[in-house]
Amino acid sequence: MTAFFITGTDTGVGKTYVTCKLIAEYVAQGYKVIGMKPVAAGCELVDGTWVNEDVLKLEAASNVQAPRELTNPYSFNEAIAPHIAAEKAGIEIDIKVIQQAFKELVDMADIVIVEGAGGFLVPLNASETMADLVAVLNIPIMLVVGMKLGCISHSLLTVEAIKSRHLQLHGWVANQIEPNMQMLEENEASLVTRIKQPKLFSLGYLS
Question: Is the whole-model pTM more than 0.70?
Fold first, then answer.
């Protein structure tokens, strides 16, 4: 079994886009692949059911279908921080519930790619963050860097947070999220120099 956790330097940096591209690549190689979004905030009504757009994209990219309660254990209607959304809904996000869902998905596929919500230290409840979830799942991390002004500091801070918890950073992805970022190549080169783990690939701006 192979699994990866996709985190980002911030929200809106293209984690879902990168996750879907990775799923498609593994599917093309003949693997059975499932995408998982443990916590999603921001839903729309589709055929009478409230569902998150990112979850639908992961389902469409995966070639193994699984119950949504496994691929997306927690989903909230408002596009706000997960722990706040959970509080408003009167529930608490339980990492053990996510861990059990992940274990069941592992039995169904060759590869499970888990997409986080927001950045690496987004709170899930009063005492735990997305970083604690990664530690429990115990899988390598891929970091999506949103290439924009400030990305160097955001990236290095995230890498430091990963290292301080003795978690495994598999590599990082440079995703251009601004159409005309100044000094794009220079920023990318600065990250290559400063992050020991490899840059896995770069993605150009997608309008």
Answer: yes
Query: Residue 103 maps to which CATH number?
Result: 3.40.50.300
Strands of the sheet with 33-36, listed across from one edge: 33-36, 111-119, 2-8, 141-147, 169-176, 199-203
Per annotation, catalytic residue among 15, 21, 32, 37: 37
Low-confidence residues of the chain, pLDDT below 70? 207
Domain that holds residue 8: 2-203
88 is catalytic: no
Yes or no: say if 143 and 155 are a contact pair by the CB < 8 Å rule: yes
Q: How many domains does the chain have?
A: 1
For the chain, the first-to-last Cα distance in angstroms comes to 35
pLDDT for 18-60, tens place per residue? Answer: 999 999 999 999 999 999 999 999 998 888 888 899 999 999 9
DSSP alpha helix (H) spans, the chain? 15-28, 53-61, 68-71, 82-89, 95-106, 130-137, 151-164, 184-194
